[in-house]
Amino acid sequence: MTRLTAASALAMLWATGAMAQTELTMWYHGAGNQVESEIVNRIIADFNASQSDWVVSIESFPQNAYNDAVVAAALAGDLPDILDVDGPIMPNWAWAGYLQPLPIEPTRIEAFLPGTKGVWNDQLYSVGLWDAAVALITRQSTLDALGLRTPTLEEPWTQEEFMGAMEAAKASGDYEYAIDLGMSDQSEWYPYAFLPFLWSFGGDLIDAESGYQTAEGVLNGEAALAFGEWWQGMFTEGYAPGPSQDPADHASGFQEGQYAFTWNGNWLALPFLEAFDDVVFLPAPDFGNGNFIGAASWQFAVSGTTEHPEGGAAFIEFALKDEYLRDFSNGIGLIPPTPTAAAMTENYAEGGPMAVFYDLSEDQARLRPVFPGYPVAAKVFAKALTDIANGADVADSLDTAVDEIEADVQSNQGYGQQ
């Protein structure tokens, strides 16, 4: 009888402890990606089993429907406790109140790649478990056949060398186009992949020194016009397919020999490595003002309405363990955000086939403009690039883009950044 009473008491204590756990809801953009979902769900299970204060439950959405779902939930006052956010969108969500500062000690992420830290107004709002990088991808045999120097991080191609490579590939007659720029992917790819070219010419999407109040002179100034003329020439001269590119060609054209080069991300590096044994990942060319690639991918944050930011932060900090960063990298091919996690991976350890992407992210990556108006400005930029690629007047297209960006900034009272 005494034993039964003691067992019953223990059961009651366990039940009381279980009931004391506070539930945290989490939304995630990766529905449909089986590998990614398995890793996220394993982290959640490990976290829930590791402590008795919090229990996380997840709801996943398809990526193309996720942002709309978050906006709708925010308007309805029904945000989850934890959510993930695409890095360049974070300032908009923070400004709108969808997010609140993330209570994690800065020293915890001191070693993380810069692009994985979501900072706005000098406060940390989000942290990424991976980053992504773009490279100029080709084969060493292609470079050799075309008589081209292999560029390095220390000595990237100049504009003259890059255009010489485009002309050599075109003149060889061996390719349908010299390069695949990914024009069929008319989404965030355009500002992520092509804004670095504008930066390299010396322009920008919006003027940071004005507090992100104007795009005049940076998106339509002399440097931007030079970029626009070069951009249009890539299509009028037949070096790259335009916006009407078939998505299937973008997905497999490089492997099938349609393109000598592809401007592409590390998330597609594994198929390229499987197709060829001499793939090389090259740094962005320098068009006169440095060479750049985009930074910041998806990151974890706590919502602006959660009553338990400390619980959300506890989960996010738990997820930052190197073993999970390693598993994401091995599973989906993206860049682990710490050198210790990189050393644990199959592809990013020293001498690994994709280790160069870590170096590219560390040395070349630059954040897209960190201001709340970025989502609108990005769409305006993408439209301008599409129009120019299709033959529209360069100056008119860029002037129109400036007007539209400034109209949005003004209609939102400067996003509070005057």
UniProtKB/TrEMBL annotation:
InterPro entries: SBP
Residues annotated as signal peptide: 1-20
SUPFAM superfamilies (alphabetical): Periplasmic binding protein-like II
GO cellular component: ATP-binding cassette (ABC) transporter complex, substrate-binding subunit-containing
GO MF terms held by the record: maltose binding
Coiled coil (UniProt feature): none
Biological processes annotated in GO: maltodextrin transmembrane transport; maltose transport
Swiss-Prot/TrEMBL keywords: Signal, Transport
Family, as annotated: Belongs to the bacterial solute-binding protein 1 family.
Name of the protein in its database record: Extracellular solute-binding protein
